[in-house]
Amino acid sequence: MQTLQLLISGIAQGMIYALVAFGYNITFSTSKTLNFSLGNFLMIGGVIGFVLYMTRGNPFWLALAAVVAVGAVGGAILLKVAVEPSLRQRNAYGWILATLAVGIILRNAAEVFWSTDDFKFRSPLGDSPIRLFQAPLADGTLSAGLGVYPQELLIIAVSLAIVAGVEAFKRLTVFGKAVQAVSEDKDTASLMGIDQRFVILFSFMLSTAIACVGGVLVAPITLVSATMGTVLGVKAYSASIIGGLESGIGAVVGGLFLGISEALTARFVSTGYKDVPGFVVLILLLLFKPSGLFGRTAIRKV
Amino acid sequence: MADPTRPRPLYLRLAPLLLVLPLLLPKAIDNGYYVGLLNRILVYAILVASLDLVVGYIGDVSIGHAGLFAIGAYTVAVLTASPAMNSDSSIQTFHQLPFLVALVPAVLLTAFAGFLLGFPALRSSGPYLAVITIVYGLIIYTFINEQELITNGTKGITLTPLRLGDFRLGGQNYFYVVYPVLVLVMFVVHNVTHSFWGRAFEAIKYSGVAAESCGISRSYFKVAAFVLSAALAGLAGGFFAQLDSYVAPNTFAYNFSVEFLIALIFGGVRSVIGNLIGVALIVTLPDVFNRFADYRLMVYGTLLLLVLYFMPEGVVGIFRSLWRRVRPVDHTAELAALDRAAAQVDVLSGLRQGEGPPALELRAVEMRFGGLRAVQDLSMTIPRGAVRGLIGPNGSGKSTTVNVLTGLYTPTKGTLISFGEDLAGLKTWQRARRGIARTFQNLQLFADLTVLENVMVGLHPSFKATLFEVAFRLPRARREEREARVRAYALLSFVGLDRVAFERARNLSYGQARHLEIARALALAPRLLLLDEPAAGLTSGEIGEINVLVQRMKAAGVSLLLIEHHMDMVMAISDEVTVLDFGKKIAEGRPAMVQSDPVVVEAYLGKHPTSTAVPA
Asked: For chain B, is the Cβ count within 10 Å smaller at the N or the C terminus?
């Protein structure tokens, strides 16, 4: 029973990784760059959600809408300020440094203009667990059974909905096909009349908006703080690499793998080492499959 | 002994004497706080120099150097810690080794960690490798935090300050320990990066395939770069442990790696001076903007963005271009000296091959990609000293054949034999060292290296000096470097590029670049040279020049495989011509015979519509 409960927590945590990993994938597939500040965008989402919902007492839907808007605008700014200029440089990986720089700025800004403390974020669905599989005990009371936090279920549901929604959008709509065309071959897509600059802009806005929503989702089960995105961003990034950078399914599989391995290691080995097994698997996996589980390998052409 | 082909003004030769001056700094400053900052800068500069090897030279972004640095620092801390300084710690055993003794395992252990990190780096790059370095650093960080019985966990380890007899080496005096070390490290790093080692690193960065074709083992040099870099990071860590005489895990978190990456980019990559400037900025900025200490990271981040856009070569790049304005680069004397020395060198001598098995023999070679057979059942023999033309329409398998011959692709069937040796299982660089050289249809030059250096990469197999000899500029290393410069210059004269020897390869015209490809391939002193469309995209005048070069190489006795679309050239030079179509050999023989073969004509021009044509 306890293991099952652990699995559900692991899955919820894993879906957050998957959601942010999916955010990495979206920009990588259109622009071949990754936004290394995505973890800090998640933090910005959490902080703005906290300020509007907890501090100011606005309704939850309003806070969520504001977070999505901030995320989308932030993504556009990031693209214009950090990614596009560095792509014009000779340095092949300038965008890694540029987006890292934006991440540092965001985190430091949150510390200076907001707070350096940790805060509790109340779940909109309440913070008491839903009890399942309770068995009557000898003294007439019920056993603890399986306790699931409604927020955990919300995370799983919303994350799945977002991933499935974006994947369906990519496959079923004309604009989605344009996105796929850009990810296959930018130049040919341009020749077909697709505005690749707009597609890339859209992908950055979508990616950061998703990360910001992730921040609001994860906040009730962790805490809100200016540093909440740093390690989470790295883990989500690992998840997306494990799955293969261009695969939506890969992001979910990678995220779930990390989330569950963390929960199990924390329970059966030690909390301190909870990240290690997932990271070791990541390194070993890339040794044998350099483009991740669901990634494609290209034939070298000279 | 000075290199006569590298004339240097006296003031530059005396410049190293200035290195003594900083020894006066601690007395001149005489302020514990500022000398402490200075010491910190020196220790961190070693770390940034180590990061530069991986980022600047090999071109991989590492965000995990904090982990390597931590291994060095903690090895020294754990091995030297005394119970007196760590009275209520959870450490089980105190080894209490002297600092210098502990430094050895610290460097070795970190080098080993770098060795392990080198393997994923062979297969992954860019964003994939970046995540590997991040999690590698995080794993190390976790272990340091959790292994309390060894590291005392989050509470850290206090070290005994250094002393030499009665002389205290801690505090201000630590300068006298780290400054000589830094000077030595920079001397070594500069020597290694300005030798065939450094050129191998940069060649791998621009094109692993082209580097291997010059006889450079990509695996060996890439792993070696990670090992060297890690060893330096470990050394820096070891000295860091004594800087504050205290280490705690929090120093070595993920942000530390990011900050040092920023320092490296600030200062400018591939320059030891740049490394020093970058670190100095990172360490002193919080002090300069004391009131904005809280905003430190925002300032860093913004500065990094500005540097990335406006100073792609970092602060040192600005200094460099200012200096160039004061003193424009003048290569006249150097070119004259090289001219004189190169006049003694005949680049074509010794290329003639004696009797023996043929230069190349292909037996029923097949190369399949999934369902596509790019080459099938291809057999052909090139006798020693002969020129074989390989022609066919686009997509007929010509370049695939070259890629199979050089070992880039492993053929799905068949045998390759060169000069009596079976090539199966030999890597590209091993084949290059056996004298199989190639040029590339899509130019694969090392863009940021000079024209001369590009050819020197081709001379890589001629270097025999050990890394130690290179690091300390011992006589053999200097002699080989000098000889290689002269020979490379002679090769440039052969293809007519000697006047642009000090130009960067990226600035060459297309025709010049094709000439450089030939000079670089010829540097290997090839026995079998594969020319993959050497005249593609050239003007008729330039084609004439290439034609002359190929004729001269043929006359010198090199066995050649010539892929070309310019039929005049192929037919004039080749002894025999092989024609491919859809991966199959459709004709072979003397040029005149092949030209009149109806099958060949059909492959190029299509079927003649005689029988089915409707009369007008």
From this structure: C
Determine the Cα–Cα distance for residues B421 and B434; give it in Å rounded to an integer.
Answer: 10
Percent of chain B with pLDDT over 90: 69
Domain holding B147, by residue range, is 32-252
Over residues A84-140, the pLDDT tens digits come to 988 887 777 788 889 999 999 999 999 999 999 999 999 988 888 888 777 778 777
Ranges of each domain in chain A: 2-123+147-288
Give Cα B102 distance to the centre of its chain. 32
Which ipTM value was assigned to this complex? 0.91
Q: β-strands B157-158, A146-148: how paired? A: unpaired
| Other CB atoms within 10 Å distance of the CB of residue A136 | 9
Give contacts of A91 with chain B, Cβ < 8 Å: 308, 312
Interchain proximity A302–B408, CB inside 8 Å:
yes
B518: number of CA atoms within 13 Å, CB side? 29
Quote the distance between the C-alpha of residue B84 and its chain's center: 48
- Nearest partner of B406 among B367, B357, B369, B376, judged by Cα: B367
d(C-alpha B392, C-alpha B372), whole Å: 17
Q: What is the mean pLDDT of chain B?
A: 91
User: Do residues B123 and B248 share a domain?
Assistant: yes
- Spatial separation of the C-alpha atoms in residues A45 and A215, rounded to whole Å: 5
Q: Which residues contact B181 (CB under 8 A, 6 or more apart)?
A: B42, B46, B235, B239
Other CB atoms within 10 Å distance of the CB of residue A291 = 19
pTM assigned to the model: 0.93
Facing residue for A238 by CB, picked from B124, B126, B131: B131
